[in-house]
Design brief:
single chain; about 140 residues; mainly alpha; two-stranded antiparallel sheet; about 65% helix
C-alpha cells in the first residue's frame, strides 16, 4: 500500500495534475475556495463533469468548452486509473507514463482555452504542484502520519 501512495504522489507531482484534492483550499488569482469531499464519486475520483465544473469556476469556460473538456478529462481519468491499478510496472516508469498522460490531456485542454484562460490554467497547475511539494515535505518530515 505504501508504494501505491508513493506512486500516486509521484504521478501528481510529476504531472502537474489539475484535478483538485479534496479537503484542500485552492487559491487562484487571489481567490480561495475549499474543495468539498461530498462531491466525490464512489471510487474517490471526482467525475469528469465535477472536474470541469471546478475548472469552469476558475476559468469562466463557455458551455462549448465545457462540453469539449468532459471527454478529455474522462479519458485522462480512465488512463490514470488503469495505470494506478497496474502492479507490473516500476514506480518511475509509471510516473513517466502519468506525466505523459497528463501532458497529452493538458495540450488538448489548452487547445480549447483563450490566452487569458491559458494563463490562469498554468497558475492553477503551478499551485497544485506547490501544494503537492508542500505535502510531500510534510510527510517526509513526519513519516508516521
Amino acid at each position: 500500500m505504501h508504494s501505491r501512495q508513493f506512486l500516486a504522489t509521484c504521478l501528481i507531482c510529476f504531472s502537474g495534475a489539475i484535478t483538485p484534492f479534496y479537503g484542500q483550499t485552492i487559491t487562484t488569482n487571489g481567490q480561495s475556495s475549499s474543495v468539498d469531499s461530498t462531491s466525490q464519486s464512489k471510487n474517490g475520483w471526482p467525475t469528469p463533469e465535477e472536474t470541469v465544473t471546478r475548472m469552469s469556476s476558475k476559468l469562466n469556460l463557455s458551455d462549448d468548452q465545457k462540453n469539449q473538456m468532459i471527454p478529455i478529462i474522462a479519458n485522462r481519468q480512465t488512463q490514470m486509473k488503469a495505470l494506478m491499478a497496474d502492479t507490473s510496472g516500476r514506480r518511475m516508469q509509471k510516473a513517466r507514463k502519468a506525466k505523459s498522460i497528463m501532458s497529452d490531456s493538458d495540450k488538448k485542454i489548452e487547445g480549447l482555452l483563450t490566452n487569458d484562460q491559458k494563463k490562469t490554467y498554468e497558475e492553477m497547475k503551478e499551485q497544485m504542484r506547490e501544494q503537492m511539494r508542500s505535502g510531500m515535505q510534510q510527510r517526509s518530515s513526519n513519516p508516521q502520519q
